[in-house]
Amino acid sequence: MPRVSLAFFTAATLCGMAGMVWGAMMGASEDFSLSPAHAHLNLVGWATLALMGIFYALARSGGRLAWANFALSAGGVAVMVPSLALYLQGSKPAATGLQIGTVLVILGMLVFLVTVLSRWTKPAAA
Questions:
Q1: Which residue ranges traverse the bilayer (predicted)?
Q2: How far, in Å, CA of 36 to CA of 41, rounded?
Q3: Start-to-end CA span in the chain (Å)
Q4: Prediction pTM value
């Protein structure tokens, strides 16, 4: 397995664990005001990063583009989710972090799209 896949799986698992603990805490307190941030952590952090890791494992590819994808996507989640949580709690300055994180995540997906499309030009494995 390429190391970049392991990096994606590690980040995804950390996001998944944090999302589960956060969800349990919201349930216990019956305060679901941060549900949108929780959902972004689970969907972008856990699901999207894991799917990208699966792709790189199946494609047996890594390289600079894959690591750029990881840095943008994981970094975007790390900026976006806390910023969204703060924004939902009324911190208007957190909107800047939310915008930066969103741009990073979108750029990460764009790099992933380029990577996926580039596989069309490679010969199929036997």
A1: 39-59, 66-88, 94-117
A2: 9
A3: 18
A4: 0.91
Tokens of 40: 């972004």
* Distance of alpha carbon 120 from alpha carbon 84, whole angstroms: 36
Could you report the per-residue pLDDT of 67-87, keeping only the tens digit for each? 999 999 999 999 999 999 999
Q: Report the distance separating Cα 5 and Cα 62, nearest Å.
A: 8
Q: What does the pLDDT look like over 13-49, one tens digit per residue?
A: 999 999 999 999 999 999 999 999 999 999 999 999 9
Q: How far apart are CA 94 and CA 17, in angstroms?
A: 24
CA distance 107 to 27: 33
Q: Can you give the chain as a three-state secondary structure string?
A: CCHHHHHHHHHHHHHHHHHHHHHHHHHHHCCCCCHHHHHHHHHHHHHHHHHHHHHHHHHCCCHHHHHHHHHHHHHHHHHHHHHHHHHHCCCCCHHHHHHHHHHHHHHHHHHHHHHHHHHHHCCCCC
For residue 84, give every residue at least 6 positions away whose Cβ sits within 8 Å of its Cβ, in sequence order, or none: 36, 37, 40, 94, 98, 101
